[in-house]
């Protein structure tokens, strides 16, 4: 027996004095209201209504039980209201600063169709997991090595002039005898993580490039500005290069890629984001369609 539904029918009929009117108030057919009240009477072991009269008149037992039934109905209504309110509470999600406003809006719209309401907190890769730990956000898209990532974004080098070569080899950055300033590779904050930065540094050292030829910028804007005004190159994704109007090529001899996964205070939040919003997050991060399909 559904105790709440039976009590709701009991309260509605008692307040209207009619099985027909009470059923209408409870938004159920009159036979259903009668069956639910009869089931409640069997459950409690006593009659709630005196059926010898035309009106639905409460028995003494019914009058004594009515306050408890009302409390149960009110509590059930309050619980349903709280559930709706909680479902509308935004899920605060820390995201990379590389996610554009449009892509975040598209992800938000996709989530709303699933009754998930997102609130975004752009943050640097080293901060995002910490925001989860301190409960400032419920979940974060965190940076991980590409082989561990649920999403992978290949990286290459972009410059103000599209290179003629199909790939760029870092050894071409060696300083010659021309006296010209050495070309630099700029690393943006999103890629200032050990599994990307340290690999670039190791290649730099193995090729005999100067230490200053690999530099970490304070922001993507600063890195892009340095590239626009020189022959320097930006380590970035193909999508970022296109947004900035730069010519992009993959790097020869080394595969660099961003890896992303979800960190959340609750495992169910992480699972839901990975599963239900996988494609939307992929587009937001700039995952190529070929990588997304894998």
From TrEMBL:
SUPFAM superfamilies listed in its UniProt record: Winged helix' DNA-binding domain (SSF46785)
Family that this chain belongs to: Belongs to the LysR transcriptional regulatory family.
Keyword Phosphoprotein: no
Lineage: Bacteria, Bacillati, Actinomycetota, Actinomycetes, Pseudonocardiales
Listed Pfam families: HTH_1
Top-level taxon in the UniProt lineage: Bacteria
Swiss-Prot/TrEMBL keywords: DNA-binding, Transcription, Transcription regulation
Protein name: LysR family transcriptional regulator
Residue span, HTH lysR-type domain: 1-59
Keyword DNA damage annotated: no
């Amino acid at each position: 027996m559904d105790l709440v539904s039976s009590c709701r029918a009991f309260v509605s009929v008692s307040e209207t004095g009619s099985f027909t009117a009470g059923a209408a108030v409870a938004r159920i057919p009159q036979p259903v209201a009668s069956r639910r009240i009869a089931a409640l009477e069997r459950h409690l072991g006593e009659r709630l209504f005196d059926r010898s009269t035309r009106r639905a008149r409460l028995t003494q037992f019914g009058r004594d039980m009515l306050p408890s039934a009302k409390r149960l109905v009110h509590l059930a209504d309050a619980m349903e209201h709280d559930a709706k309110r909680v479902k509308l509470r935004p899920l605060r999600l820390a995201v990379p600063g590389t996610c554009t406003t449009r892509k975040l809006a598209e992800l938000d719209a996709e989530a709303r169709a699933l009754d998930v309401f997102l609130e975004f907190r752009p943050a640097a890769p080293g901060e995002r997991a910490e925001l989860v730990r301190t409960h400032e956000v419920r979940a974060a898209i965190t940076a991980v090595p590409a082989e561990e990532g649920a999403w992978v974004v290949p990286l290459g080098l972009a410059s103000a002039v599209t290179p003629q070569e199909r790939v760029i080899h870092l050894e071409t950055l060696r300083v010659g005898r021309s006296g010209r300033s050495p070309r630099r590779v700029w690393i943006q904050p999103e890629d200032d993580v050990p599994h990307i930065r340290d690999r670039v540094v190791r290649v730099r050292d193995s090729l005999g490039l100067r230490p200053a030829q690999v530099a970490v910028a304070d922001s993507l804007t600063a890195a892009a500005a340095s590239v626009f005004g020189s022959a320097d190159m930006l380590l970035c994704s193909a999508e970022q290069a296109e947004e900035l109007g730069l010519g992009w090529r993959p790097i020869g001899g080394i595969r660099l890629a961003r890896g992303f996964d979800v960190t959340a205070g609750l495992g169910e939040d992480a699972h839901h984001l990975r599963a239900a919003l996988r494609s939307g997050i992929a587009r937001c991060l700039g995952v190529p369609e070929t990588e997304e399909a894998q």
